[in-house]
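SAMPLE LOG
Freezer: B-3
Tube label: C17
Construct: single chain, 93 aa
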Amino acid sequence: MLKITQDAEIPEMVKVSLSGHFTSEYVPEVEKALIQNGNKSKKCALDLMNVTFVDRPAMEFLRAAQSRKIKLENLPSYVRRWMQQESGNGSYP
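STRUCTURE (predicted):
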């Protein structure tokens, strides 16, 4: 189960916080939450502080989100290492 919440305190940024297990079934909901406000001029951020599990499709979504300049905050260390391995280098961008 994944809880998705939007932080409305920062008007110039769309910040989505995730809590629980981030799996492939939730990827469309997270994407929808990021674009729900629809304003292209807003910056986007995903806060993964309370994420306890990420599967491969969710990790691939995170890599794609990062390449689209979506800021990943509080990324669990095992996810960071996994993303590094998948990108083929040892450094985290």
